[in-house]
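Thread: Newbie trying to understand structure tokens

Hi all, I'm a second-year student working on a class project, and my supervisor (Dr. K.) asked me to get a predicted structure for one chain before our next meeting. I've only ever worked with sequences, so writing a 3D structure as a token string is new to me. If someone could post the tokens and maybe explain what I'm looking at, I'd be very grateful. Here's the chain:
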Amino acid sequence: YVIFDMGAGASEETLNFILAVDEIVVVTTPEPTSITDAYAMIKHIHMQNKEIPFLILVNRVSDEKDGIDTFNRIQTVARRFLDCEVKPLGMIPDDKAVQQAVTKQIPFILNEQSVASKALLDITNRFETQTFKEIHSQSKISFVSKLKRFLFER
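---
Reply by user tm_fold:
Sure, no problem. This is what the structure looks like when written as tokens:
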């Protein structure tokens, strides 16, 4: 797997990378501004390529209901205004161990007892074993080929 952390917003250069991928994981939090940014990114990408599937990862949830509500809000507006289906990837609880790891400048995943680490490991294990086949693009064109096309054939 190759993961690009693109941050909020997209430039012409980052959009070329994004449009070359097989699927997009949109990370959001339950905060309204984060949900708005996530939807704006989904809309921007979906307008360029309606075939790329979106997975939603809700970070820093206070409880399961918080994560489900956040996903449902994004799913509702994506369906209503874009006719776009998004799929839940999972949720990561808000965890002080993450803040402590940032302060220590170490990956939080090294603390195997943290709830955020456990959630992230669960998500990655499900992703690897299930591979979300029902939403993977069936494109025969490789990521590298798509990226070359975007970078050099425009």
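A couple of things are worth pointing out once you decode it. Strands lie at 24-28, 54-61, 86-93. The chain has a mean pLDDT of 86. Feel free to ask follow-ups in this thread.
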